[in-house]
Write a structure and sequence with these properties.
two-stranded antiparallel sheet; ten-stranded antiparallel β-barrel; 304 residues; mainly beta; Lipocalin
Length: 304
């Protein structure tokens, strides 16, 4: 997402003063190495609402993924009442995801478009919170998100957990409900088929993060950015907001995006002096017809 030439955040005459040389000012910190253009491939799985003989359809995509991030010039001021102003730093971004198997008039079929902002937040005194990172995103289907969390850097490669595509009763993760569409050996008209399934295996449906762990590399250092709409760990804030079509009314939601959690692993490979590999895994819960349906997107990207 391009910024206007010459745009710089500047203090105003009625501000409290210049940014103090304390932890009330945040530079880019752990976000600094995100700047640039990242491209690669991944996997997308989404349970879509469906009208007719089934209430759902499982869409599966091998993806071409691109994220372009641009540093925001100047410090971003947040003026406070109970706490004095803070100054943050950040990046704008534009993510574009297409289906690697499906083309329309010779062009890969677009799946996802997301403009947004990453920001680095200093430690706060009121509310009392540690330094944090946050991502704010707008999705054209009618959802905006704010996910907030922590950043940490450690030697070696990332520790990537398993994730599950199995839906569950809203509010109760232990009441899972599996469906034939998640099992490739079972025939069903309510799942991606034909050329769209090229490169998709049962292992990917068992654990979408296997796409990441199967992409081996000699990683010397990893910065983990973990953000959520309900981050915990003492944080407040975060959440999703959905248009009327998604939220629905007395008959229930069409597809209400209620929870988002994502982890980005920024990796430095052997022989490099800066991170040039980025892996991420994101889960969005879509609520409809009494269940929470996981929408999982993963990818491995390299910096251009």
């Amino acid at each position: 997402m391009e910024l206007a030439t010459g745009f710089v955040f500047e203090p105003l005459g009625n501000d409290e003063g210049a940014p103090p040389p304390t932890n009330a000012t945040a530079g880019l910190g752990p976000l600094a190495d995100l700047a640039g253009s990242w491209t690669g491939q991944g996997f997308n799985a989404i349970w879509r609402p469906h009208r007719g003989n089934s209430d759902h359809f499982l869409e599966l995509n091998v993806t071409d993924d691109q994220i372009d991030l641009t540093v925001i010039n100047g410090l971003i001021p947040n003026r406070g009442l109970v706490q004095g102003q803070i100054f943050m730093s950040g990046l704008t971004y534009l993510q574009q995801i297409s289906d690697a198997n499906v083309t329309v008039d010779g062009t890969p079929a677009g799946l996802h478009l997301e403009p947004g902002v990453w920001i680095n937040i200093p430690a706060l005194t009121d509310p009392k919170e540690p330094a944090a990172v946050a991502r704010m995103a707008s999705i054209p289907h009618g959802t905006t998100i704010l996910v907030q969390g922590t950043a940490e850097t450690a030697a070696g490669g990332p520790s990537i957990p398993d994730v599950s595509l199995v839906p569950f009763t809203i509010g109760n993760r232990n009441q899972t409900v599996d469906f034939p569409e998640r099992h490739l050996k079972q025939t069903t008209p309510f799942r991606t088929s034909g050329v769209g399934l090229t490169g998709i295996t049962q292992a990917m449906l068992n654990n979408p993060n296997s796409v990441l762990t199967g992409n081996k590399a000699n990683v010397t250092t990893t910065t983990r950015l973990h953000v959520s709409t309900t981050p915990g760990d003492g944080f407040v804030g975060g959440g999703t907001s959905n248009m009327a079509f998604l939220v629905g009314a007395k008959d229930g939601p069409n597809a209400d995006a209620t929870h988002v959690v994502a982890t980005f692993w920024l990796q430095t490979l052997a022989g490099d002096t800066a991170p040039k590999r980025l892996q991420y895994s994101q889960t969005v819960l879509l609520n409809f017809n009494g269940l929470s349906w996981p929408h999982i997107t993963v990818a491995t990207l390299t910096k251009a």
